[in-house]
Amino acid sequence: MSRIIVAIPKRETGIQIRNLLVRNGFDVIGVCTSGVQILNYADVLEEGIVICSCQLKDMMYGELRADLPQSFEMLVLTTGRYPVEETAHIRTLSLPLKVQELLEQVRAMEEIFEWQRRKRRGRKSERNERQNQIISRAKAQLMEKKEMSEAEAHRYLQKYSMESGNSLTETAQMILEMMEERPSEK
């Protein structure tokens, strides 16, 4: 779940928006009245959603967007007084606020964050050639010394990887080290 920062010049309005979001299951970590406060929160967080008005006490939404890390998304609440251009990281919502529209926008933004997280995790879990070679060598050792089929050797590695909490590569490396220490058990 993404962390949300609400930034409205009138603190009471910001608190009302926070309470609405919290009641609907969102994680709101702060209510701010200035851009500097938002940037302080952003320094601590990896990513998040900023829900703000076009104009804060110390800066306009565009200045704030320029200072925020790329991993933050903005939902700008607009009255039409200031033109707001939607971009890849900026969405808009017209005032007066309709509760359902706000909740739908925030849910949509959270879904994007979740998709990006899964995409990043998928990239991290891809093995490089060296790791694939270690796994293949461990399977070959198991097949030779324990007389397993390739599928059995792979399941063996997966099982012990899950039980130990190590990656498949780490488990394969441990098995290779153990097999080198002992003579063949035929």
Task: Explain this structure.
With 186 residues, this protein is of the alpha/beta class. The chain folds into two domains: 3-125, Rossmann fold (3-Layer(aba) Sandwich); 129-181, Winged helix-like DNA-binding domain superfamily/Winged helix DNA-binding domain (Arc Repressor Mutant, subunit A), CATH 1.10.10.10. It is elongated. The model has no long low-confidence stretch (mean pLDDT 88). It has a five-stranded parallel β-sheet, with helices on both faces. The protein has helices spanning 11-23, 35-44, 61-67, 99-125, 129-145, 150-164, 168-181, and strands at 3-7, 27-32, 48-53, 72-78, 90-94. Helix 5 crosses helix 6, helix 5 (129-145) packs across helix 7 and helix 6 packs across helix 7 (168-181).
Instruction: Tell me the distance between the termini.
Output: 53 Å
Please state the average pLDDT score.
88
> Would you state the CATH class of the largest domain?
Alpha Beta
**CATH-defined fold name of the largest domain:** Rossmann fold
Write the layout of secondary structure elements.
Elements: E1 3-7, H1 11-23, E2 27-32, H2 35-44, E3 48-53, H3 61-67, E4 72-78, E5 90-94, H4 99-125, H5 129-145, H6 150-164, H7 168-181
Parallel strand pairs: 1-2, 1-3, 3-4, 4-5
